[in-house]
Amino acid sequence: MRVTLVFCGVMAVVLAGTGLFLYLRLESQLNRDIDRDLHSRGAQLTALVRASDRGLGESVHSVLARQQETFAQILTRSGRIFDPSVQRGPPVLVGAELKRARRGTTVFERSNLPGLGDDAARLEARPLRKEEGRRLIVVVGASLANRDETLGKLVTLLLIGGPVALLLASLAAYGATRAALRPVDAMRRRAAEISAAEAEQRLPLSPAQDELRRLGETLNRMLDRLQAAVERERAFVDDASHELRTPLALHRTELELALRYGGTTEELRGAIASSIEEANRISQLAEDLLVLARSDKGTLSIEAKPIQVRDVFAAVGGRLGGPAREAGRSLVVDDPDGLVIEADRARVEQALANLVENGLRHGSGQIRLWARATEGCVELHVSDAGPGFPPDFLPHAFERFRRVDTARAEGGTGLGLAIVDAIAQAHSGRAAARNAPEGGADVWIELGRV
Questions:
Q1: Separation of alpha carbons 244 and 169, rounded Å
Q2: Percentage helix, strand, coil, to 5, in the chain?
Q3: For 260-304, how does the pLDDT look when each residue is reduced to its tens digit (9 = 90+)?
């Protein structure tokens, strides 16, 4: 309705402007036709007056005598009637009009002329100089009744046809707008029906290849992304619940066994130690989930500053060198002298520690911590000499709770690589993994170089 009202207002202005243009155009054309007729009559009467010897000849008398819807008058230069015996009535030129007529041909309008009644008339006055030196002014005129009648008919047609045209155009605009917006209303109704329980529904699309169809396609793609996000959220909650249920069940079992059968101090101490281990696992899982949740919201705390890669490697090597030796493995740390990155040191150390722990848990042989500088970036690598990743696992390596079967058997949560990826993205970098040509897994994060 608002579109129709705006269209109606604009159309009314256009019709009014068009009507005014037509009126003025027709009036101008009619005035030019009248002026041409007056000019022709004035020239004819001037020639007749100039041909008369004295006074006004018979030919002039006949022209002055047959005035019906026309008017003619001969005046002296002073504005008096020339040859009053032939002409009757007061002179038509006075004041400023008489002065203009003395200087040259002039056209003006007047009403209440002799012989024309109350009708308005258009007059042409031109100066004349006879051979004997007398100066006269020839005035011819024509009634404007026919012109005014024609213009009046045009106004009547415009007053009748304009509103009718405006009404028809507005109805057409309303129908066209309603038809054009019908797909929008259909999309609105379908959108009102879509809920989390029916997230697979999509908005109907207009058959026309227009802006509304493109809008519908864009909104459907948005719904696809929202559905995928909801499904990921559900899977995240399900997996997190499953991962938390197992250590909590073990923790409860240990405590129940200690309460029921822990008769000696050693048995109680063993149950308490086992409970503490499960509690640490639960705490670490909760911390990992918190990191991922903050990453999803874009609020993962990052305090980036220039740091030496050598210092980061030394900290990670010092922390995990002991566990590596206990597992009968070696952790080799390269010395990337001179490499500086813009990053949060604690988060980068956390990511590298996760990669080293993954290598200790799932790989074999030597673990190497090394770096490589690329154009504008620095890659921090952790590689091992184990069997590497299964080929079908590599595309999903950084997804949450994604684990190979051996990792499930060893009790991994499947969040280590996901946290590495979240930390890399928080630094506007990325994480990647591959199987090295010489064997073993190679996982790295790419960060900005200073």
A1: 69
A2: 55, 15, 25
A3: 766 677 777 777 777 777 677 677 667 767 777 766 666 677 888
> Can you name the residues that pair with 369 across neighbouring β-strands?
333, 382
**Residue pair 317/369 in contact by the 8 Å Cβ criterion:** yes
Give the 3-state secondary structure of residue 330: coil
Residue position matching structure tokens 């948005």: 222
441 and 384 Cβ atoms separated by less than 8 Å: yes
Q: Please report, in angstroms and rounded to a whole number, the separation of the first and last CA atoms in the chain.
A: 60
Sheet harboring 135-143: ordered strands across? Answer: 70-76, 135-143, 120-129, 106-111
β 367-374/331-333 pair status: parallel
Name the H helices within 52-133: 58-65, 95-103
Number of helical (H) and strand (E) elements in the chain, helices listed first: 10, 11
pLDDT tens-digit readout, 48-93:
877 776 656 566 666 665 655 678 888 888 888 877 666 667 788 8
Q: Which amino acid is at 360?
A: L
pTM of the complete model = 0.48
Calpha distance 430→205 (Å, rounded): 37
Instruction: Give me the residue label for tokens 């159309």.
Output: 11
- The strand pair at 135-143 and 70-76 is best described as antiparallel
Where does the pLDDT of residue 409 fall: very low under 50, low under 70, confident under 90, or very high at 90 and above?
A: very low
CA distances from 266 to 204, 257, 272, 321 (A): 70, 13, 10, 31
Q: What is the mean pLDDT of the chain?
A: 81
- CB contact set of 57 (below 8 Å; sequence gap of 6+): 48, 51
CB 372 within 8 A of CB 446: no
Task: Give the pLDDT of residue 407.
Answer: 46
* Burial of 409: CB neighbours in 10 Å, binned 0-12, 13-18, 19+: exposed
Taking the C-alpha atoms of residue 287 and residue 266, their distance in angstroms, rounded to an integer, is: 31
Is residue 288 within 8 Å of residue 413, measured between CB atoms?
yes
Buried b (16+ CB within 10 A) or exposed e, 352-384: bbbbbbbbbebbeebbbbbbeeeeeebbbbbbb
Q: How far apart are CA 435 and CA 432, in angstroms?
A: 11
